[in-house]
Amino acid sequence: ERVHLLVYFRRPEDLQSFFLQRIAPHRARGGTATTPIPVGVYDLLEQLKEFDCLTAAAHPFAIAKNGWMTVRARHDHIVQRIGELDAVEVLNGQELDGTNAQAADWARQRTMGLVAGSDGHTLGEMGRVVLALPQEDDLFGMLKEGTGTLVDLRPPGTWRKVLTQAAKAPY
User: Fold this and answer.
1) What is the distance, to the nearest Å, from the Cα of residue 10 to the centroid of all Cα atoms in its chain?
2) Which of 28, 61, 68, 155 is the most buried (most CB within 10 A)?
3) C-alpha atoms less than 13 angstroms from C-alpha of 19 in its C-beta half-sphere
4) pTM given for the model
5) What is the pLDDT of residue 170?
6) Where are the beta strands (DSSP E) in 23-146?
7) What is the pLDDT of residue 124?
8) From CA 150, how far away is CA 131, in angstroms rounded?
């Protein structure tokens, strides 16, 4: 299916347990964090119900092949499952403003939680996009409610993607 699913665990032990029991056995030898595993989204979502965690659709309107809404022609069941998620990534540092806006509108229409992330692949990209939350007891509740402040420190304008790709070039 090749969509990206974001999972936020409340406790580090749950993250470790989920990884060791459900992900590690399916990873190819020498695989990286982005190596696909042969486990579908449906199965992952079912397995995650056993853990105290939040799930979010990463860059749902990405133009590339890994956007949740982009793959719906091949995998209609994915769109049906997106409603079971807790949140939607509405600000992704690697996406264009238009696809981020689509994601934000889509999430607000469905009253889903909002998350954001730099999706950085280089040190210079880290922290350019974040969701700032006030110091509270229940950050998970705040994520589900969509509260917080979206912070976008990427270079302005339509050239964001070009600049981001240029930063990755092996000069």
Assistant:
1) 16
2) 68
3) 10
4) 0.79
5) 44
6) 53-57, 87-92, 113-117, 129-132
7) 80
8) 5
Written as one letter, the residue type at 119 is D
Which residues does residue 6 pair with via DSSP β-bridges, in sequence order? 56
Amino acid present at 108: R
Q: Are 21 and 111 in contact (CB under 8 A)?
A: no
Q: Categorize the per-residue pLDDT at 126 as very low, low, confident or very high, splitting at 50, 70 and 90.
A: confident
**Location of structure tokens 């950050």:** 139
8 A C-beta contact, residue 9 and residue 52: yes
Instruction: Determine contact, residues 82/117, Cβ cutoff 8 Å.
Output: no
Which tens digits make up the pLDDT trace of 40-95? 888 889 999 999 999 998 888 887 666 666 665 666 666 677 778 899 999 998 88
Neighbours of 91 (CB within 10 A): 24
Residue-level pLDDT at 150: 84
Across residues 26-45, what is the average pLDDT?
Answer: 78
Q: How high is the mean pLDDT of the chain?
A: 80
Q: Which of 32, 85, 29, 25 is nearest to 60 (CA)?
A: 85
Give me 111's structure tokens. Answer: 């009253």
Question: Which residues have CB under 8 Å from 65's CB, separation 6+?
Answer: 2, 71
Beta-strand pair 5-9/53-57: antiparallel
Backbone angles phi, psi at 115, to 5 degrees: -135, 165
